[in-house]
Specification:
The chain is globular and about 70 Å long. Helices cover 6% and strands 48% of the residues. With 402 residues, the protein is mainly beta. It has a single domain, classed as Beta Barrel (Porin), CATH 2.40.160.
Length: 402
């Protein structure tokens, strides 16, 4: 069925429940995508049971699983206003055909805003600008077995408020206000900050300040070349202190570049420098560098190959007393006072055939190799391996857009 016909039916149904007649004057569309994979997870052998002993762990079992890779449906609309402005909205909702946990309406990227010659401003539940910049250069989804959320950005935080999933720097952030500047000669920029809704329970006797996030990005495109810069600050998130809000600023700087080598091949890369400041009462800190290289190649006709190699370097800083001596965890990453061997490396590869403009079918493979004091999972659907172990996923995927 035509998208606009479906949208009109949705609009009519809303109108039946008392919506304003003005709704019919908006340009409303319905779209979405279904992205699923099925395959075998191997979460590794015995490895080391913990990061603080040399005792061997118990081997994990192999199992097959079906995984949802960010499938969703979305209603979007806009309406021309006086003065050259336009009102717009987006409501995105998870769509899980596996019978997974139900999600609230508009629980994915969703907002309402105004745009005009000044650019656009919106508020809602939305990807932070630094995350949106990285998505321009990473051909893989952020979650599921092919994603790199845990390795590159220390987990993926979805629909989260300040201080929730505090270690993550890949955030779909609730209560976010975003400004996007007008595009100028290939230059785009965005700035966003969070409100402090969750501070409503604080009293005047509270000695800490309110948690807040700031995120910005700049992206420049000139012919085949793309360059991106992202910056994000988490104020009073304190990821190792159970959101104790002890003060401090956690930061991420991201650099990205891409080049369209030919009409069929694009190469790209992302580099992140993440630092956690005053993560506990002792004032410890931890820093991590991560990077990834990617290729998206339309080999011939309907056949395409996507490949990636990503690295999380060993952590540094004072957090954690040393290897096998009171190591500590911030999100997915181990801190051991900079003693080393806390990183991980991942390869991911998929080959697909386009059955139409909207449907892809393909095969996928991913492997993550953990250093001695690391046990990062292969991705959503996999289980944490023992320390120092490899995890793999091999399977098939199907994608359909509408």
């Amino acid at each position: 069925m035509n998208k606009k016909l479906i949208a009109l039916a949705v609009g009519s149904a809303i109108g039946a429940f008392g919506a304003s007649a003005a709704f019919a004057q908006s340009n409303v569309t319905l779209s979405g995508s279904l992205n699923f994979n099925y395959g075998m997870f191997d979460n590794g052998g015995a490895g080391f049971a913990t990061a603080t002993t040399n005792a061997a762990g118990v081997s994990k079992i192999k199992y097959d699983g079906i995984n949802n890779q960010e499938s969703q449906w979305a209603i979007a609309g806009e309406e021309k206003l006086d003065g050259g402005m336009t009102a717009f909205f987006l409501c995105s909702t998870s769509m899980d055909i596996t019978g997974g946990t139900a999600a609230n309406m508009c629980a994915r990227n969703s907002y309402i805003g105004l745009k005009g010659g000044f650019g656009s401003i919106n508020m809602g539940n939305y990807d932070a600008p630094a995350k949106r910049m990285s998505a321009l250069y990473d051909p893989f989804p952020i979650s599921a077995a092919m994603g790199q959320g845990a390795q590159m950005w220390n987990a993926t935080a979805s629909n989260t408020v300040n201080g929730a999933t505090p270690a993550s720097f890949s955030r779909r952030q609730a209560n976010l206000v975003t400004y996007d500047m007008p595009s100028m000669n290939g230059l785009d920029a965005s700035f966003a900050f969070t409100s402090a809704n969750e501070s409503s329970a604080m009293t005047s006797a509270t000695t800490v300040t309110k948690p807040r996030m700031w995120s910005t990005m700049v992206n420049y495109t000139n012919g085949p070349l793309g360059l991106g810069l992202g910056y994000e600050n988490h104020h009073n998130y304190n990821p190792a202190a159970n959101a104790g809000y002890l003060g401090g600023n956690d930061t991420m700087v991201s650099l990205a570049a891409g080049y369209q080598v030919s009409s069929a091949l694009r190469l790209s890369g992302i580099w992140n420098s993440i630092k956690y400041d005053k993560v506990n009462a002792a004032g410890a800190d931890m820093s991590v560098k991560t990077w990834g290289l990617y290729a998206d190649w339309n080999v011939t006709g309907p056949y395409r190959v996507r490949a990636g190699y990503s690295v999380q370097a060993s952590t540094s800083g004072s957090f954690g007393a040393g290897a096998q001596a009171n190591t500590g965890t911030i999100g997915s990453w181990q801190g051991n006072g900079g003693a080393g061997q806390t990183g991980a490396q991942k390869i991911h590869l998929e080959g697909v055939q386009a059955l139409s403009k909207r449907t892809e079918l393909g095969l996928t493979y991913a492997q993550i190799s953990n250093d001695r004091y690391s046990n990062i999972t292969i991705g959503t659907g996999g289980a944490n391996p023992n320390f120092g172990e490899k995890s793999t996923f091999m399977g098939m995927l199907i994608r359909h857009k509408f």
